[in-house]
Design a protein that fits this description.
heterodimer, A: 451 residues, alpha/beta, six-stranded mixed sheet, 14 helices, B: 100 residues, mainly beta, five-stranded mixed sheet
Chain lengths: 451, 100
Amino acid sequence: MIKVAIVGAGPAGIAAADLLAAHGVAPVVIDEGRRPGGQIYRQPREGLALDIAALLGSEADNYRRTHATFAHLRDRVDYRPQTLAWGIEDRTLHTVCGTTAATLDFDALLLATGATDRTLPIQGWTLPGVFTLGGAQVLLKEHGCLIGRRIVFCGSSPLLYLAAKQCRAMGAEIVAVLDTTPFAAKVAAARDLMAVPGMFARGLGYIAALRRVGVALHDGVTLRAFEGARGVEAVRFRDRRGAEVTLRCDAVAFGFGLKPETQLAELAGAELRYDATFRQWLPHADADGRCGSNVYVAGDGATVGGAQAAALTGMLAGCALLDDFKIAVRGVDRPRLRRQVQRLRRFQRGLARAFAWPAGIMAELDDAVMVCRCEGIIAGELRAALRADFGPTEVNRLKAITRCGMGRCQGRFCGLAAVELTAQALNVPLENVGRLRMQPPVKPIPIAISS
Amino acid sequence: MSGRLIRAVAPSGAPVRFLIDGAEASACAGDSVLVAVLTARDALRQHEFSDTRRAGFCLMGACQDCWVWLADHSRVRACTTTIAEGMHVLTRAPQGAYQP
């Protein structure tokens, strides 16, 4: 039997595992989570009386279906929770669970690694009380906890409105939702958003619901600073008319869409290509997720598409894998799946324009603001390195000189900002300055590990 | 010192006693170290390379901003580690520990 390793047990990984198991292939499913579901379908911890169905609303059915699929699958796959896949060498995956290391030989590797919030440096973003938007949501889903009592949601993302609605339903005061993208960009994106009218309508519904209960919604703002001494106490921004506004709060959730976790795909040999719509580098794959010799990507880790697209691309990648190993695929209408994925991804491209990355904000970034949270590197240090004689002309050199991106997160949260700063300093297009290259381990591992 | 995180749903887990910098604190079985500390305190740790305090950021094991020391000189990522009875969390590096 062929040996298949799947990394990730969110909607994409689960759908892929289900399809493979139905065809007699029992994959190993490696996942960092305590329980399956990924971030979007994160389960409440055992014994927590949280009404997850009420919290998820229209997504509740998909949540239930995904977990029912996994429960049914559980005995037919080798499921390894709380396990990090940290490196790949030829056809061997290196993993660690706690302090126990293991290697896993595979014939095929299916990566369903998901995504994290895309953020950018803003004055005060390291203050206690400032969290990512997705972080605020998983904390609520898993632990039933709110990030604070009076929360400002800011950045640019469709999740702003959903997360605000969820936190309000659980008792938080929503001070305001601050969207950096102007309303005109949303109108311009409407045609692509109409590719999935139901989702578009749902999104508009979240906004209307918040407006109905009197939550202040601003668009076209410029975020200036998160302020406070020992923790966040206020958000300062310029509204669309240019007036400076300060709102008091005790927590901030912020994010600018999602950033695919492409590290393992890169180590597996996938080519990463610049995508002008998302303004980031994504694994180059065919329509079914093939991105290398017997390597496949699915879900948001391939390209941001949302939970539904994740499940569908998980199935498509599973089919591609079966094809490549000459196992006949039964009972899957692939042309239909591909059409659905295409529609969902068109919708996401619409979202990427309706909730755009505020590239210009980096030009205004004060020299004193910390760009690299791990190593504590400020914008001024990066700019000084970039201005120096024979200074770096691409971002990996900048990393070598300044340590920006060299810390524990390996550039996940500063990499794109470093790229923007480099492109601005050199006055060249973003894609010319490259991206931070990845090397194992993709996340910190203990120095003392046993086998 | 009051907590930063708010429990919107009352947890049902048994109480767990643990220590933060030598002071007694109480959490609930099933809490992550991050939830346990941040429902009791307003920050998680002191950053090694600056004078900033941190309280985690991504809450999903990606940003690595919530690694804390334990009194036995081991380190854990607070958002993905479950609190245990008697655990002794330190908000800054213990004396004599290998740094960073």
